[in-house]
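Title: Prediction job returns without error message
Component: structure pipeline
Severity: low
Priority: P3
Assignee: unassigned

Description:
Job completed but the reporter wants confirmation the result is attached to the right record. Sequence as submitted:
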Amino acid sequence: MKDLWVKNGIVFTEEGFREVNIRVIDGRIDSFQKNEPEPLIEKTDTTIDASGCLVVPGFIDAHVHFNDPGRTEWEGIETGSRAAAIGGTTTIFDMPLNCAPSVTNFKNLQDKKDYLTARSYVDYALWGGMTDTNLTNRQELSQMGEGIIAWKAFMSESGIEDFRFVSPDGLKQAMQAAKEHKKILALHAEWNEEINKWTAFYKHRAGINEREAFLASRPISAEETAVSYALELAAKYGTALHFVHISSAKVIGLIEQAKKSGVDVTVETCPHYLIFDEEDFLKSGAILKCAPPLRPRDEVEGLWDCLQSGWIDTIGSDHSPCLYSMKTTESIWDAWGGIQGVQFTWLSLLDEALKRRMNLKQILPLGTSNVAKRFGIADRKGQIRPGLDADLVLIRLDESTFVNKQSLAFRNAYSPYEDKEFLLKVKKTILRGRVIYDDQSGVSNEKLGVCL
């Protein structure tokens, strides 16, 4: 029986922040005891001194693309999970596309599971893909449903050849299948027909800046149309729905109305929609290209208002890496759309929230307990509570983190967060009672992550 103490920290519990010591036995939280500050000789296998630190639950990032197997040169589970650990994330959910082949059948799912074994620094779960090519194979979908955290579908072109978007009629089948499997259906919600129309209009239009043209080709109305249609179907079929990377307060307002009417729906946004705006994209270009695109500053402020009102349920990085050469194309239209951010999700978000004088009690659940509860892993993850995995992050608010190229842990060392300074620092990341990252010694040599 392995016994570990995390002492002298300010611990985020169900009751809020408390000055308690945490006893960990065999990787799980055993109990709290009264904190009586004392000088400690730290021994990371038995005692961790958290003096001066907030101790918060390990973050759960439900939206990453680590591209393994098949496109490891873009990222891979090893470098992706290493970057996640450095940023305080202890659990990730890997999306079913950008790996090759995509996870759209049972064999691909099993092959991916086998391949990832013993390669990750953090715990992980896998999404399954619903596309127009597999919707009619209910037996296959049923088999897959046993081994995934949830389903993912696109309502517009995904940019990956073997991951076809779901048509409006196909979405009805997807809703029914997800309901049958008692699994959440997550949607990339942009209306494909509208995007195609505006892309055709703007792509070769003379006299307009290419970057401005790209922004105009994916308007908020394309999100609004897609979300409205999906909400109608979810209400009809009783499907549990989760919208990923929503970029507009107006669209989140539609989702909030549906929640109040009884639809089983949650919504995620991403740090880049809360930090950057379309002016940043116009200045920096493809390094900030994503879909939906970045929005005007008033939309950014609107998202913060939604967050403060409790209308946003989860935060995910939507870490979508690629080779740097795929960002330096001659035309913005040809550049890969995705942002490298998993290492900085919570550094950037907490930094911005603190600058806005927001209460961390309101922010932290967006990457911890809310995610765990929504995706059915709250019996293991998401809170610092006896009986749960000892996934912990030690954070200091009196130290800062400066991002330079040397500090990037991604396989391809670039990020829009480069040259930013965050007014907090992750000191340690602990997975099931084991230190997997220490700001002095770096990332552990052991890859302890397991598939949930």
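Comment from assignee: result matches the submitted record. The mean pLDDT is 96.
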